[in-house]
Amino acid sequence: MNPTRLLLTGLLSLPLAACGAGTVVPQTRQPAPSAGPPASAFMKTGPLMGMDAKHLTGMFGTPRLDIRESSMRKLQFGNGRCVLDAYLYSPGRGKEPVVTHVDARAPSGADVDPASCATSLQGR
Predict the structure, then answer these.
(1) What is the pLDDT of residues 78-90, one digit of tens each?
(2) H helices of 1-124, where?
(3) Is the pTM of this model over 0.85?
């Protein structure tokens, strides 16, 4: 065999040999993602905090948006003067989700006070 060809064959076989050598590391099973900390860990004080969806819809009517994810629910209410987003999380396993965070903004996108927006939404 030609020395150049022998060298080339040897160099090309090295990466392939490395693939078969060594020990096989078994894949470990990743733990399922947790539902996260309880809602009480995020509770702040303020308007609407701790209210459930039934109470919110009783105050503001049918939400524009009702988005549900695995551990979160977002209700959005608006009336042309402001838009209010209420984020609800369950305070514990099997418990009804409650508001833990509220955002409010004008139709232009500028932030507004959530309490004044809530008052505006009740007056529709």
Answers:
(1) 999 999 999 999 9
(2) 3-20, 53-60, 114-123
(3) no
